[in-house]
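Batch manifest line 274
LIGAND: NAP
JOB: complex structure
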Amino acid sequence: MSSIVFIGGGNMASCIIGGMIAQGFSAANIVVSEPGAESRQRLEESYGIKTTADNRAAAKQAELIVLAVKPQIMNEVVQELADCLGHNPAVVSIAAGIPLTSLQNWLGDDVAIIRAMPNTPAMVLCGATGLFANSLVTTEQQTQVEKVFDAVGYTCWVDNEAQIDAVIAVSGSGPAYFFRIMEIMQQVGQELGLPPQVAGDLSLKTALGAARMATESSANPTQLRQQVTSPGGTTEAALQTFEDQGLEDTFRKAMNSALTRAEQMSTDFGSAFK
Ligand SMILES: NC(=O)c1ccc[n+]([C@@H]2O[C@H](COP(=O)([O-])OP(=O)(O)OC[C@H]3O[C@@H](n4cnc5c(N)ncnc54)[C@H](OP(=O)(O)O)[C@@H]3O)[C@@H](O)[C@H]2O)c1
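JOB STATUS: finished
ARTIFACT:
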């Protein structure tokens, strides 16, 4: 028995599986359990993996179970699996807002559970994932889970579960913050007279270039910003406007909204008594 079973074969599962296959994981060891026949066919054709619509049968074969369904149905899906875990697989939940206490209540107190918070750039092997394990997860299981998420990008362990909500606010929801900035730069570039294609290309290439500089340079983002900000120049004029308009405060409020929503979801979807 050495299979990694995904319960739910939607966007995130597809991203992670795509990365795993690209990084040399054997398709023969990956199974997806998913109700949608079209999704199953797409996954089989894209990655050569096995699929099923039987969550319980799949879970019984798994060394590692990745729960990749929406938070709204996690309770129902997980409780169905509770008596299929006698062989002690590790269970990884990638759902936002479902706390370990709920997963333990639904699955049983003796189950090794990891919360993982990946993001969609996993699709292009540039994901960022935060991980937190309960005390029953073995070092070997931690290493196995790390390998799965390392296949699709950067992985880190956080010190306590509350930090998973902070991971959601930073990197889980983070790609959309940058997409929004790209949209705005393209739109304003057009308003300033550039053709749409040119404005779009310049915005995207600039985002890519800045991200590569920030990750590959020994200088930190503050130093890089200072290096490109000549006194009295154009960049300084733009950055001063951000400052005057409260950009940092806006970002702080937005990220706190993401955090608050993650906490609310724990109440909405994570109750042990539903
Ligand atoms: N998207 C992100 O950026 C992101 C980031 C980090 C974490 N997450 C978490 O990842 C999880 C999945 O999100 P997603 O964006 O991949 O959602 P998604 O695309 O809707 O995928 C969920 C999949 O689960 C399937 N499903 C529904 N009921 C099921 C059942 N009873 N048993 C097995 N599978 C079932 C769905 O099939 P049908 O479509 O046929 O119903 C769908 O294919 C969520 O908990 C989310 O919080 C998402």
